[in-house]
Structures are given as structure tokens and as C-alpha cells.
Amino acid sequence: MAKPEIIVIGTGPAGIALAHTLKHKLGYNNFTVYEKLDGVGGTWRTNTYPGVGCDVPTILYSFSFNLNPNWSKELCDGAEILECQFTFLDTVSIVQNSTGLDIDATVNKFDLRKHMHFSIECLGAKWNTKSSQWSVHFRDLLTNVEYTRTADIFISAVGGISYPRDVRFPGMEKFEGEMFHTARWNHNYDYTGKRMAVIGNGCSAAQVVPAVVDKVGYLKQYARSAQWYHERPNRNFTASEKWCFKYIPLWERYNRLSLFLQNDDLVATYMPGATATRKRAKVEDHAKKYIFATAPAKYHQILVPDFPLGCKRRIFDPNYLEALRKPNLDLVPLGIKAIDETGIIDESGVKAEFDVIVLATGFQVQQFLAPMEVTGKGGSTLLQQWKESRGAQAYMGTFIHNLPNFALLFGPNTFPAHNSALFACEVQVEYVAREMIAPIIDGRASVIEVTAAAENQWVNDIHHQLTGSVFQAGCSNWYINEFGRNAASWPGYASTYWKETLKPRWGVLVKTGGSNTWLLNRTTRVLRTTSVLTYCATFLIFFAAYSRRKQYNLLPLFQRVVEAVKSRF
């Protein structure tokens, strides 16, 4: 039986986690990962604006299969995440120099690099019912050559933060100065002493403003709505802490678990009910006190939101509120009426002239596969299918009816409220590997597809759980799409999503085709991919149980096994 070909799109965290699972957990090498950027990193390679960083503890925002004990502080900046996360993985070598981050492709201990092709954009894919394969269309961004490859399994790992939101202000094409999105930051442009406008006030704007305000001549931020700001303790890890992370078994994992549970508990403030309301009121009161104590009094009224905590993503303050005290900074709670050759006219009719305009306007989070055009069974496109369902949807945020042998990582309704996105991605990767990839490569089935009924029922239940939550409290946020549906948020704890993926559900995924030898294939694969340590541990457990009955002295044997394992590694 020919080995199924697997094509993966994206080399961000989700794509790397999937590649690792394919190669090292399933023992499978017949896969290729395509990436439109010139290297790995995904959103952390795209977003390199001044001040970019993580608002989730970095120990938690890391791969579970290879933790990094060398983080410099609790909440690291983007350059360190890109460098340490991916260099520690040895997926690539990243060298910091005066011109930025240079990537030197190397073969690492996980040997993933040889499966990856960079500067290749996926334009779309079409399911061929006769061959039961995907025809995937690509464009080489270096040569502009377009070509097609076939795959038995097609997986999108492009993520939700890959394409900037396409904002259109009247007259913006007339502007004669510099203009760019935070995700397309022009590092060749020197903004020293220049007049800068920042449009937007989400997480990106809150990071950019304090990072550039001391360098620009004047900065004006246009922020139509308020945000909930919270303290952001961010101390450096001591040398002793790093030593403990590195040398004390399970110590870093224990800290990681503690952080996960603490962050997951925040979800209790977002849900409907009297208990959640009381908890939310306490957190809101604390946030108000922090805002009033940190920001200038003249901005207090426009900084405190009139919507409940969680309606927009919380911002853990990266010194943004303190930056508002700078004499060369103005904050106005107004939108943009128009842009002309020299500046911006706000909604009140006041014009200000600028040398550079920064668009901190977010991403096309709801367009999970943009701009790819994916066509499933019967010639129907996914875009049309999602329009008919009032927005993006997928069973477990992963499988979509009419799209056989396809999976979407970090898909609709999988975004954790305030926890590690990497955790959600890894949970999905394990789910996809277990429910679709393993059965196909073992030959248990050749085609696997979720039923429309199962998908619709799951999605309806998710939206029922979201009813009354703060995500739908009426503020403008990126959770809610143009049809008024929340196609982004997971309604509960991140741990609950993991538990849901483990529940057996018969009849949800329809399997057809396959080989009579699938059980033998699976047994062979499991035996081949099981680690030496697992074999040793299993042997010792069974032998200890047997020897206990026979009253054997196991110490000499145990010492010999330990020495054998040490010499093996």
C-alpha cells in the first residue's frame, strides 16, 4: 500500500507542533509543510513591531514536548520568543544582529527542517472525488511560478493572526507620508523625531506606543473605545530559578501546570450567572484603581470601559498607561473621518498632520483560511458554505463537512479566553493525529469526513453556551463576525476543550475505504515508535510484580537496566 501524502500549510507554532507529532509520535515522514514567509515562526515572524511581546506567561506559552528552561523573564518579548522558542527547538538557528533577526536553516534534533518549503504561498485546494485526493495549488513567491501538488491529507495550520485587517479610510491612498500595519512594520523607516499617528487601541497599540514615544517627536493615538487594563508584573528569572527549571525533574512542568490552572480560572469571570458577575465586579474594580493610579487624570473618563470585563481581550499593561504622561503624546477617543495628503481628519473634523501613520487595527481573525480558496465535494467552496452558516464553523473547531481528509488547526471557537493558544493548538494536533491521520496512515480508512449533522449540532451547542457571556455584551470586538456570531471564542475552560477531544463519539466521523491489514500496520507502527524508556519501564513494572511473588532481589537487575539506558542516550 502506497504511503499517504500529507500536505500542511504554515510553519507557525501549530504547524511545528503537527510536524513534530507526525515525525516523532506517529513515526511518519511522508509529509511536506509549506510556508509563505521566508522562515518559521508564524505570527512571531510576522509581528516584529517595537514592543511586541506575549501577554501569557512564557513558560506556559511554549511547546510541551520541549520546554525551554532559559527564558529571561515571565513575559518575554517577541524577539526572544522567536529566538528561544524556535532556536531551542533547533528547528532553525536565529542570530540577532544589527539588522534584525537572521535565520540560518539547520537540521535540528527533531529534524523538521527538511520537510519545510519557504516562500511558497498556498492559493487554494480542491477535493477530487474520483481519486480521493486533494489538489493543492501553490505560487512560488521568489519565482512567481504556480504549480499543483496532490495530497491524501490536507491540513491548514495558518492560524488566525496571519493577515492584517483590511481597513479602508477615505482618502488613505492620498497620504504622502509613510503608512504601514503593525504586522508589516517598516524597519527601514526611521521615525526618530517624526510626527506619528497610531490608529487603534488593542494589544498591539498598547505595546507600540510606550516603545516609540520617547523616540518620536510627537505621537497621537486615535482610540474609539476604551479597554480594561491590568497590572503586568514581569520580573526577570533568577539564575537559581533557571537552574531549577533545567536540572530538577518536572519542576518547570509543575510551574507550567500551576500557571495554566491560574489562567484557566480567569474564565470564571466571563460566563453568565451571579457568581461570575460578583467575581467580574471585583476584577473590574481592581482594574479601575490601577488605571486611575497610573494614567493621567485627564484620560480617566475615556480609559475606563462601559462594557463588562472580557468583552474585549484584556490588556496586561506594558507601561502604556505610564506612557500617556509623556508631554509629546495625545490620546483622543475618536475614529477617523478621512486621510489626506498630509494627515488625518478625525470624526470631530479636527485635522492633524503626520509623517507616519501606524495601523494597529488587528487581523482578519474570522477569515481562517484567507486568502486560500478551498473547494470540497460537489464543487462547493468553503467560503460559500460558511456564508450559508453565518460564519466560520467546524466540528471541534477542526473538521468540516464536505471537506474529507481535511483539518483546520486553531479553527473556529477554539480560542481560549485568556490562556495559552499553544495549548489549544497542541490539543488539536493530538486530536487530529488520533482521529484522522493515524487511521489513514495505518490503512483503517482512506477517507474520513465529519457528518454535517454532527458539525451543526456541536456548533449550535457552543453558541448556546456562549449566550449571555461577556463576549457578546455588545462591545466591538474581533470575536463577533458580520452576522453577529461568535466564531472565535471557546466558551469554557481550556482544560474542558482538552477533555472534549478525548471523549469517544461514535458516528461523528464517517470512515470509508482502507485495508484489511490496518491492525497489523497499527501494531507495527506503535511498536516502532514506542521509546526505549517506555519499554524499560514496562518491563520493570511487570518483572517487579512477578519477582515480588518469587521474592527475587531486583536491585542488581535494575542497576544494569539503568546503565544500559544511560549508554543508549
Query: How would a crystallographer describe the biggest sheet?
Result: 5 strands, parallel
Count up the helices: 16
Supply the CATH superfamily name of the largest domain: FAD/NAD(P)-binding domain
Number of domains: 3
**What is the strand arrangement across the widest sheet?**
5-2-1-9-21
Shape: globular
In which range does the helix fraction lie? 25-40%
Q: State the CATH architecture of the largest domain.
A: 3-Layer(bba) Sandwich
CATH class group of the largest domain:
Alpha Beta
| End-to-end C-alpha gap | 34 Å
**What is CATH's topology name of the largest domain?**
FAD/NAD(P)-binding domain
Name the average pLDDT. 88
In percent, how much strand structure appears in the residues?
Answer: 15-25%
Low-confidence stretches: 87-107
- Return the structural class: alpha/beta
What does the radius of gyration come to?
Answer: 26 Å
Number of strands: 23
